[in-house]
């Protein structure tokens, strides 16, 4: 996948988590995704629809990573997938994607966004709205890992 698709979402993810949750997210090396299931325990997927390009983005958090992020955002201890955690995942997806949308627009790519769809668990295939190979961008935090999946055509 072209770096012009990866850099805006990487930058937005690092900035949003740093600002909202005081979490230092360190991006790993992008790879082509193998298999169809989510890599984390809770996942949010959102479609990006533009005049010249279509895509989708999934953010998939490990339990320990999202529980830590939620606790840092809300100041409350979290130890299960309750409605609050699910809401945080969806809101983070909206904010990260919205920030990336601005960066994509600076490159001449304009998208409309859909509402995120949520998945709990990693035993059901994650289906992107566009055909093609998904690129996975892993992130490490002090508490755990999470993954971004990008698919553009």
What keywords describe this structure?
153 residues, alpha+beta, Chemotaxis protein chec, 36% helix
Major sheet attributes: 8 strands, antiparallel
Count the E strands: 8
Mean pLDDT across residues = 92
Instruction: Calculate Rg over CA atoms.
Output: 14 Å
Distance between the termini: 10 Å
Task: Name the helix and strand elements from N-terminus to C-terminus, one letter apiece.
Answer: HEEEEHHEEEE
Percent strand: 25-35%
**CATH architecture descriptor text:** 3-Layer(aba) Sandwich
Q: What is the name of the CATH topology?
A: Chemotaxis protein chec
What's the CATH class label? Alpha Beta
Shape: globular
Number of separate helices? 3
Give unreliable regions as ranges: none
């Amino acid at each position: 996948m072209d770096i012009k698709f990866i850099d805006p979402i990487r930058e937005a993810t690092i900035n949003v988590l740093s600002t909202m949750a005081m979490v230092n997210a360190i991006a790993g090396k992008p790879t082509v995704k193998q298999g169809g299931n989510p890599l984390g325990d809770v996942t949010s997927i959102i479609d990006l629809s533009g005049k010249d390009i279509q895509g989708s983005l999934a953010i998939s958090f490990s339990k320990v990573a999202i529980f830590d992020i939620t606790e840092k955002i809300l100041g409350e201890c979290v130890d299960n997938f309750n409605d609050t955690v699910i809401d945080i995942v969806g809101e983070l997806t909206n904010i990260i994607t919205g920030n990336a949308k601005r960066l994509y627009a600076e490159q001449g790519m304009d998208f409309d966004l859909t509402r995120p769809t949520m998945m709990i668990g990693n035993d059901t295939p994650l289906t992107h709205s566009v055909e093609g190979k998904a690129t996975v961008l892993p992130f490490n935090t002090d508490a755990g890992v999470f993954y971004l999946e990008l698919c553009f055509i």
